[in-house]
């Protein structure tokens, strides 16, 4: 059942402690500890992945830093991952700002799994894999792969994600993106983004590239939070329904009046509502 969550007013941004960790692979991971400093974590660690169409984004963007900082203020330990980015569509020669080489599937997923293994070893309460937009797709894929490898997460949090190799055009005009996203998030543009990440038709159909439409019986319990007016919502809604159909416990929310990437806008009602939902669900409240 989809719930339309009432919006909550944002609370002041807390100050949290952060520290990097070393991994066998050079994968940047940033830790956010519950505040005040030294306060024990009240539940599992959230491993959080930013979005950006697979080819952009960083640990510094609000969708990574502000979300993790806010969740830590709710008593959760959070780790964010600087996974490798896919080539910029049409500009495959470009590196990232930090001159880090780019890579298509499965390299970004490999980075997430490297971080997941390390974070799991430090998280006696288990790990929840979560992310926004493309990060949600990576989180879902990582949940499948971690389960395949015998390290299943204790949950998944998927914020305005997309999970299918081919995007679907929603029949409901009220659910479609508005403004400039009518072009940048048009179905043809989103499908080109997916092809850019996968790199080939074979990989495009790989369940670990885009889990939607594949076997999801062993997927963990899931929190799904979608934006109301978002061209990617069609995939997010369909994926949540696929999980329910195979018996996965799913809590679903659509935030009224919201648009894609609202977690990149701290200080808004939508941001505060989503963070509260994630914290409450993760802590079992």
UniProtKB/TrEMBL annotation:
<dbReference type="GO" id="GO:0016787">
    <property type="term" value="F:hydrolase activity"/>
</dbReference>
<protein>
    <submittedName>
        <fullName>Alpha/beta hydrolase</fullName>
    </submittedName>
</protein>
<feature type="domain" description="Alpha/beta hydrolase fold-3">
    <location>
        <begin position="101"/>
        <end position="263"/>
    </location>
</feature>
<keyword id="KW-0378">Hydrolase</keyword>
<dbReference type="InterPro" id="IPR029058">
    <property type="entry name" value="AB_hydrolase_fold"/>
</dbReference>
<dbReference type="InterPro" id="IPR013094">
    <property type="entry name" value="AB_hydrolase_3"/>
</dbReference>
<dbReference type="Pfam" id="PF07859">
    <property type="entry name" value="Abhydrolase_3"/>
</dbReference>
<dbReference type="InterPro" id="IPR050300">
    <property type="entry name" value="GDXG_lipolytic_enzyme"/>
</dbReference>
């Amino acid at each position: 059942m989809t719930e339309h969550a009432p919006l909550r007013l944002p609370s002041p941004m807390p100050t949290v402690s952060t520290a990097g960790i070393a991994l066998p692979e050079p994968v940047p991971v940033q830790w956010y500890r519950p505040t005040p400093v030294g306060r024990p974590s009240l539940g599992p660690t959230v491993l959080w992945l930013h979005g950006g169409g697979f080819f952009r984004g960083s640990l510094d963007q609000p969708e990574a830093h502000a979300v993790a900082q806010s969740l830590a203020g709710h008593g959760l330990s959070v780790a964010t991952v600087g996974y490798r980015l896919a080539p910029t569509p049409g500009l495959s020669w470009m590196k990232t700002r930090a001159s880090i080489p780019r890579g298509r599937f499965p390299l970004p997923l490999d980075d997430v799994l490297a971080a997941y293994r390390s974070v799991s070893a430090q998280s006696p309460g288990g790990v929840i894999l979560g992310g926004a937009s493309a990060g949600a797709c990576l989180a879902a894929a990582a949940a499948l792969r971690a389960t395949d490898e015998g390290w299943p997460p204790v949950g998944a949090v998927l914020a305005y994600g997309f999970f299918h190799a081919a995007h679907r055009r929603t029949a409901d005009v009220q659910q479609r993106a508005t403004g400039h996203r009518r072009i940048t998030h048009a179905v043809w543009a989103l499908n080109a983004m997916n092809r850019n990440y996968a790199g080939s038709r074979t990989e495009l159909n790989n369940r670990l590239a885009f889990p939607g439409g594949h076997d999801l019986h062993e997927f963990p319990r899931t929190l799904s939070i979608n934006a109301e007016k978002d061209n990617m919502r069609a995939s997010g809604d369909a994926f949540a329904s696929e999980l329910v159909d195979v018996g996965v416990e799913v809590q679903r929310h659509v935030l009224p009046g919201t648009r894609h990437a609202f977690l990149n806008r701290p200080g808004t009602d939508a941001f505060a509502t989503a963070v509260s939902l994630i914290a409450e669900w993760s802590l079992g409240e």
